Q: What sequence folds into this?
């Protein structure tokens, strides 16, 4: 399953604002917990604005 930009932003929001863990998010979006972890830190490093263009 390919994640949309909106999915990635929702993943980041659930992690940052709601306090969800990567395993819980991974189960909800049907991805591995390592992919969720990668998304968290990619957006943390590059910011939300840069992630919206990808």
A:
């Amino acid at each position: 399953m390919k994640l949309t930009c909106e999915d990635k932003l929702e993943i980041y929001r659930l992690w940052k604002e709601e306090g969800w863990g990567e395993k819980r998010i991974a189960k909800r979006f049907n991805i591995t917990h390592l992919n969720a972890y990668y998304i968290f830190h990619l957006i943390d490093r590059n910011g939300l604005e840069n992630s919206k263009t990808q």
